[in-house]
Amino acid sequence: MVMCLRLPSLTSSLFSPATTNSLRLSPAFLRRWRGRYHLQPPSPLLASASFSSQRTTATETSNEDRADGNSKSRLNNNSDRVITPLSQDFNAWYLDVIANAELADYGPVRGTMVIRPYGYAIWEAIQEYLNVKFKETGHSNMYFPQFIPYSFIEKEASHVEGFTPELAIVTIGGGKELEEKLVVRPTSETIVNHMFTQWIHSYRDLPLMVNQWANVTRWEMRTKPFVRTLEFLWQEGHTAHATPEEAENEAIQMINLYTKFAYEQAAIPVIAGRKSRVETFAGASKTYTIEAMMGDRKALQAGTSHNLGQNFSRAFGTQFTDENGQRQLVWQTSWAISTRFIGGIIMTHGDDAGLMLPPRVAPIQVVIIPIWKKDEDKPGVLNAASSVKEVLQTAGVKVKLDDSDQRTPGWKFNFWEMKGVPLRIEIGPRDVASNSVVISRRDVPGKQGKVFGISMEPPILEPYVKDKLDEIQSSLLRRATSFRDSNIVDVSSYDELKIAISKGKWARGPWSASDEDELKVKEETGATIRCFPFEQPQGIKVCLMTGNPAEEVAIFAKSY
Amino acid sequence: MVMCLRLPSLTSSLFSPATTNSLRLSPAFLRRWRGRYHLQPPSPLLASASFSSQRTTATETSNEDRADGNSKSRLNNNSDRVITPLSQDFNAWYLDVIANAELADYGPVRGTMVIRPYGYAIWEAIQEYLNVKFKETGHSNMYFPQFIPYSFIEKEASHVEGFTPELAIVTIGGGKELEEKLVVRPTSETIVNHMFTQWIHSYRDLPLMVNQWANVTRWEMRTKPFVRTLEFLWQEGHTAHATPEEAENEAIQMINLYTKFAYEQAAIPVIAGRKSRVETFAGASKTYTIEAMMGDRKALQAGTSHNLGQNFSRAFGTQFTDENGQRQLVWQTSWAISTRFIGGIIMTHGDDAGLMLPPRVAPIQVVIIPIWKKDEDKPGVLNAASSVKEVLQTAGVKVKLDDSDQRTPGWKFNFWEMKGVPLRIEIGPRDVASNSVVISRRDVPGKQGKVFGISMEPPILEPYVKDKLDEIQSSLLRRATSFRDSNIVDVSSYDELKIAISKGKWARGPWSASDEDELKVKEETGATIRCFPFEQPQGIKVCLMTGNPAEEVAIFAKSY
Q1: Which residues of chain B from 286 to 325 reach within 8 Å of chain A, CB to CB?
Q2: Is A151 in the same domain as A227?
Q3: Residue B77 CB coordination number (10 Å)
Q4: Which residues are within 8 A (CB) of B269 and not within 5 positions of it... i.e. 6 or more apart?
Q5: CA A542 to CA B415: how far, in whole Å?
Q6: Phi, psi for residue A508 in degrees, rounded to 5
Q7: Counting one residue from A and one from B, how many pairs have CB atoms under 8 Å apart?
Q8: B318 plus B199 within the same structural domain
Q9: How many angstroms separate the Cα of A92 from the Cα of each of A37, A95, A100, A352?
Q10: In this structure, are A194 and A268 located in the same domain?
Q11: Hey, are the CB atoms on B143 and A167 less than 8 Å from each other?
């Protein structure tokens, strides 16, 4: 089986075990791996059903309440709570959060997902940041067709039958059986190279650096909203260079950009590093990855950048004439981040109350809740709330005023906490009288996170809110980093590794053993090498498996 | 056949003749129409071949020149000119411009298109404008899956066989024949309504106003880059309302927004109006359209907004509980603009020299060409050019400095003219000495469009350039408006209409005749009613066909 199609895949753990970095895997290995794959319990089907139809979603709750004229929310009532506690069942919690916060819903076709406005707005925040950075680093957006002739895949894959289970195939077009079947793109390296051969002629056409924002389709058997869906959205960058050094620099530049994005925007302290040979996507010379620790301590591969070497240019004949008039194959990279990242944000920061969003990717950074009991207080409170909204909006803060009559303030508190809004501003009659507001942090529960008497005056309120948002952003990163670090165990033997993994932790230890040893670890513990981190400890290293000298430590973990 | 699937279609002329605004067309009519459709000559195949492989593209030219060490451009040499003159063969000119300006290329699958960075940047300009406006008018972006169960289509279409020729169908997924075939979305009304039924419960959930930026697939037989491709990019808005008035207001609001966009950003003086019953998309109560006159005087339907009434909510049971506790069907709209619009920009403004872009949608608004002969002049000239670039960039102007050594200034002049860049700044040693630049307008050829001695000083240069760009923007709109108006003939009889159409013009005249009469006009002249324009002349009107009183004038034209 040729793995090259999924080079920028974000779902490595299920697909990546390649015994070499060449383009081929033995059919025997594949059968074994596929076999294991299909032995997985059909839990996602159950989850799917409960997610889309059996569970009570927030919307449904609202409408029942409304129909009942019951303004007291079920969310206020712990016994009625619709979000499964995180500690009780992480997967159920995850699906509950997605449903209740209206991030996504299941589509009518198994394994597909509708990204709802609140979830899509997180994707837009990701896009806005990355799109600017891609352009700053010299990439242009463009668009390649999603239908790829089946022969392109075959060109890449002599063991195409190993791949077929992953493909959606169009066989009928315009009412007729097609002469050549069309693959709905699972990734675009093949079609990109087909086009590159037409555009690249001389060294002056290099580097060629493009990106596309697109949908891709992979026929996954086990699906999970955002993390692994039949169709997902991503960006895929594709570049061609004249020298291997340039391609390597590009691959490193892009994984560094992803790392910076994860830390600074998503407050996710990913560990960046190089994949092992076994985990390197076949077709790539090197795969770089960012690995994030989720709330259940499983690893999520959150972005990858591949140095493809000349593997694709060789398969497609992507050549250029160098300065000496010689024809040469180009050196290439590809790199991707997908809507999976949204799953990473949910599973990094969320808590029992629901979603918790880092301010820089939050669709709503501040929610204003006006509070009144007597009708005579209402106009003053709403008036003050509107001016506060105006002030913050003008200052560039993403702010929402929830002034609906339908809900109690308490219901609204819980609702917007569940939606992960970083900061809440409460304004009641007494606040109006004292020209001040109450501000509560989503990340610090209860009274500890609540500050009274912040002046409504713009010169005071605006910087206060912005500072608080920055503080929350830092605090989320700090908390996630501390959680991550307290769950990584340094190990110096295989026994220690096994204990760490069995406790659900990540194991970090020196590694210079064989690919077979690595596969044995996976077989026996369920953990894989997530990466050889770029940041390596100093000192002499001894392989935890063999006792031989080792150059690097590796990180082992179970993963999504 | 049910036409509802193509409600927001931008390709009405080929598909729209519906005899009623109900959901059904007679099979006999369909057969007739399909029959005619397939009788079209297979010219696009030829065009396709010549576009992607036989014609010499600009890139190829460049590289040949480079390989020859021939710095004198072929574009400088009229006998070698690769762009067919517009007046000689409009279609060949169009394909040449697209190839030479590197806007797009054919994909490997017939009828698909690769949108290259320069073309995609125009799409990004369109997106940036519309996306902001959509949000300002209360719409949220989201994403629906592209795979639609075939049964959804059947639910809508008892005459589904009439539609099948338009669909790409996935029959294999995960290596297996699928139990239910999946349609690759040609538009999303069906899946949108399927989801809306799950999200809409009470009047408080309305209006629900969403939009998605997505790819769509229609298995077109006759394709043309941008104008009609097998896969294209678009935005599709979908809204649900509690009352018919709200839906009507929304449909009107969105066609007005498209009109404003066309005039103010794309400098295209579209005529906005209502489609005739025959041309209204079945499934819509009313279809509003913007119709643009291309350089060959054919009409291009450049955007549509549909008041869908309750047709889809009836088919899918999309209901809400009103304030009195009664269940009611929602009222809906949908509206779309696609990458077809880029074709409209090319065919509205281009001339024999190539593309001509309105500054507000131009990826590059100003190109700076440094000019030197003696090596000693080079540093001074490049230095001045860089500071000018810096000044303009800081001022928010999209500017490119073409400082390559590979080409003569003359070649660069022609190249960037062909790419449609609105303004060129030339800087030579004498300009450096006098601290000034030479500025040339793309829309005013030769010396007339050239101004010498504009000071390089930022306080002078920056407003000068911005004013010039505004002037060009207005000038392009003025020119297109005058072209449009001089090619619309007021007619008061069918004979006058026939003469106008036979001269390639648009005919405008009072119309209150039957659908059969309208189809007769199409049959006999090839022209269709493009719209009943919103702007109607005053006075008594007599139907050009029947002599009966008429309420409105209609515009007839041949169209893409």
Answers
A1: 321
A2: yes
A3: 10
A4: B262, B263, B292, B293, B477, B480, B481, B484
A5: 62
A6: -120, 125
A7: 189
A8: yes
A9: 22, 5, 12, 11
A10: yes
A11: no
CA torsion angle A44 A45 A49 A50 (round to 10):
-40
Pairing of strands B319-321, B299-309: unpaired
CATH number at residue B532: 3.30.110.30
Query: Based on the domain organization, do A141 and A201 belong to the same domain?
Result: yes
Q: Is residue A477 part of a domain?
A: no
Amino acid occupying residue B138: G
CA distance A172 to chain B (A): 5
Hey, is the C-beta of B192 within 8 angstroms of any chain A C-beta? no
Give the per-residue pLDDT at B283: 77
Quick one: tokens of B98? 């697209």
The predicted-structure confidence for A542-552, as pLDDT tens digits, reads as follows: 999 999 999 99
Helix (H/G/I), strand (E/B), else coil: B425: strand
Nearest to B105 among A114, A175, A198 (CB): A198
Mean pLDDT, chain A, integer: 87
> Is B132 an interface residue toward A (CB < 8 Å)?
no
* Residue B514 near chain A (CB below 8 Å): no
CB contact under 8 A, B121 and A113: no
Mutate to test the interface with B, among A109, A134, A238, A320 (most CBs of B within 10 A): A109
Which of A418, A434, A467 is the endpoint of a domain?
Answer: A467
CATH number (domain holding residue A384): 3.40.50.800
- Picking from B52, B60, B117, the nearest residue to A142 by CB comes out as B117
B12 occurs within a structural domain = no
Measured N-to-C along each axis, helices A458-485 and A378-394 cross at an angle, to the nearest 10 degrees, of: 70
C-alpha A391 chain-centroid distance: 33
CATH number, domain of A329, equals 3.30.930.10
Chain B nearest C-alpha distance from A60 (Å): 8
Q: Which residue of A has its CA nearest to B102?
A: A199
Of B148, B168, B172, the CB nearest to A173: B168
* CA distances (Å), origin B488, targets A413, B298, B300: 61, 11, 15
Total tally of structural domains belonging to chain B: 3
Domain stop point among B294, B318, B349 = B349
Give B83's DSSP letter: S
| Chain B: residue whose CA lies nearest to A325 | B67
Min Cα separation A64/chain B (Å):
9
Residues B167 and B240 reside in one and the same domain: yes
Summarised one tens digit per residue, pLDDT across range A435-461 is 999 999 999 998 999 999 999 999 999
Query: Is A499 part of any domain?
Result: yes
Are B95 and B214 contacting, i.e. CB atoms less than 8 angstroms apart? no
Q: Which amino acid is at A356?
A: M
Give a yes or no: residue B421 inside a domain. yes
Print the domain residue range for B138. Answer: 104-349
Q: Which of B64, B141, B143 to mutate to test the interface with A (most CBs of A within 10 A)?
A: B143
pLDDT at B317 exceeding the cut of 80: yes
**Residues A523, A431 share a domain:** no
Q: What angle do helix axes B244-264 and B117-136 make, rounded to 10 degrees?
A: 140
**pLDDT for the residue numbered A22:** 34
- Chain B residues whose CB is inside 8 A of the A52 CB are 198
The residue among A475, A480, A429, A79 whose CA lies nearest residue A268 is: A480
Q: Do A169 and B166 touch (CB under 8 A)?
A: no
Read off the pLDDT of residues A142-184 as tens digits, 9 standing for 90 and up: 999 999 999 888 775 533 544 667 899 999 999 899 999 999 9
C-alpha to C-alpha distance for B120 and A155, rounded to whole angstroms: 29
Q: Measured at the alpha carbon of residue B339, what is the angle toward residues B338 and B345, in degrees to the nearest 5? A: 110
- Asked if B165 lies within 8 A of A147 by C-beta distance, the reply is no
Q: Are residues B240 and B311 both part of a single domain?
A: yes
The single-letter code of the amino acid at A384 is A
Residues A326 and A248 in one domain: yes
